[in-house]
Amino acid sequence: MKENFIPVRFFTAAFAWSWLFWLPLVLVGLGIISLEGDALTLISVLISVIGAFGPAFGAYVSIRTIQGKGAFRAFLKPFFSLRFGWKTWAALFLVLGLSTAAAWIIPEFFGEHRAPMLLPGIFIFPVYWLAMVFLGGGQEEIGWRGYILPFLEKRFGRICGSLVLSVIWACWHIPLWFVPGASQGYMNFFGFLMLTTGYSFFFAWVLRASGNRPLSALIAHGTANAFIPVFPVVIMIPGAAQPRFWLWVSFTLVIGIVTTAAGEISRRRGTASGG
User: Fold this and answer.
1) How many domains does the chain have?
2) Left if phi > 0, otherwise alpha if psi is -120 to 50, otherwise beta: which for 137?
3) Band of the pLDDT at 271, cuts 50, 70, 90?
4) Has residue 199 got a pLDDT over 70?
5) What's the CA gap between 190 and 171, in Å, rounded?
6) Residue 124 exposure: Cα atoms within 13 Å on the Cβ side
7) Is 45 within the bounds of a domain?
8) 195 is in which domain, residue-wise?
């Protein structure tokens, strides 16, 4: 296999799976299919969760067709390791929690009304957090950071590999701008691209800090999503100003750049001292 090989079949399968599952909701959003009320809510949740397994499906298709039967089971084994140290856990919750909380609270000092927490109570957060890690976005990382990122890094380098993935990741979400009730419909796409870029850098840093244990990326992604209803940073009202959103994506981008720069400096110092 070539050193710079990138399994394009991964992206084909990932996009096909997700976009096909999301298609009925897109048709509802475009007014082609009529569905509303509790039925729309139930179907939206179910389809959204299944659709988010697209990157995992892409990894399965790519591994199965390139490496053969049984290879995917071996690929999944590292995902069961939680041994990535308390510092990584602390960084996840402190960085993601504080940045989201800051974006949520700062606008109040400039006259914005407080955006109330969207969860029934903070007591439900542990259960909600687990749901986000395994069903609410975290599962994407089986494919993104768990499988395809190493290929992109070998081809483009660490920094450019994450940049390429951030653009692809943002584009993968495009159908959600047409899905009724999806938060993306209230976000500026360029701002969302800032978010995926910051997260791509930060999640890659978390992955390396954990000793390349891919479960850390699932936990990072799920934790990021879990904090959003605790500290709402997107006002889901058409035409509403979104100061919290812009602060949030800006903070996330800065965090991604800073952690990546720190990681690169540390790596080069280690290489220099080792040489």
Assistant:
1) 1
2) left
3) low
4) yes
5) 11
6) 11
7) no
8) 78-274
242's tokens:
């979104």
Residue 35: the pLDDT is: 77
Pick from 102, 103, 199, 99: which is nearest to 149 by CA? 199
- 16 assigned to some structural domain: no
- Is residue 51, in this structure, part of any structural domain at all? no
Angle value at C-alpha 235, between 229 and 205, nearest 5 degrees: 55
Q: How much of the chain is helix, strand and coil, in % rounded to 5?
A: 75, 0, 25
The answer to the question of residue 15 being in a domain is no
> CA-CA distance, 233 to 59, in Å (whole number)?
32
- 72 pLDDT higher than 60: yes
Which residue type occupies 117? M
Closest by CA to 164, choosing from 208, 205, 196, is 196
Exposed, middle or buried: residue 155 (CB in 10 Å: 0-12, 13-18, 19+)? middle
Task: Say which residues have a Cβ less than 8 Å from residue 136's Cβ, sequence separation at least 6.
Answer: 49, 52, 222, 225, 226
The whole-number average pLDDT for the span 258-269 is: 89
CB 169 within 8 A of CB 196: yes
| Cα gap 47→36, rounded to integer Å | 15
For residue 33, pLDDT beyond 70: yes
- Residue the block writes with tokens 């244990």: 213
Q: Is 70 left (phi over 0), alpha (psi -120 to 50) or beta?
A: left
User: Is the CB of residue 177 less than 8 Å from the CB of residue 185?
Assistant: yes
**Structure-block tokens of residue 275:** 């040489």
